[in-house]
Please model this.
Amino acid sequence: MSKLVTGADGLMRCGWVASAPDFVRYHDDEWGFPIDNDQRLFEKICLEGFQSGLSWRTILSKRENFRAGFAGFDFNVVANFGAQDVARLMADAGIIRHRGKIEAAINNAARAVEMVEREGSLARFFWQYEPQTPPEPQTASTCPESVALSKELKKRGWKFVGPTTAFAFMQAMGLVNDHAIGCHCRALADTQRKSFERP
Model:
């Protein structure tokens, strides 16, 4: 796929936007801009786990259903989900009904609670892995920092957090600006990253 595509508004965007109409708003308003909100960080790492083996379009189209099913990804609530919640989620046709991924999200919520107690916030932990020398835009699916992040998360008991998942999370949450060179959002993301106060 081309690294750039011209939109109906004449703006250049990352080529993957052409894959689905609903990608434009996600790309322009969310992807690659720095986030320090713990709930949004938790949501994203969970959804990246659910995406494993699937397309992001599938996950994005079901995101509101995921939010409804997982209490808005409030990890303090999700950490207390039990067998009835697993059964409820397995019966929810609006999400990805994969028992392993559902149970992983609940497990990860408990690990997130532990992380906040230990680190102060999820943001403080995750932003430690911001690449100081990021790969060239749109050229990598992992980087040394995503490998290290994945390893540390697994060590702490998190699941469905491999290096590729970790890198996709880092791209989306602005830990790395992976907007293509020439994409109109690249400069916007750079501006936000420069003014962003690291946790």
Observations:
- Residues 99-119 form the longest helix (21 residues).
- The chain has a mean pLDDT of 96.
- Strands lie at 4-6, 12-14.
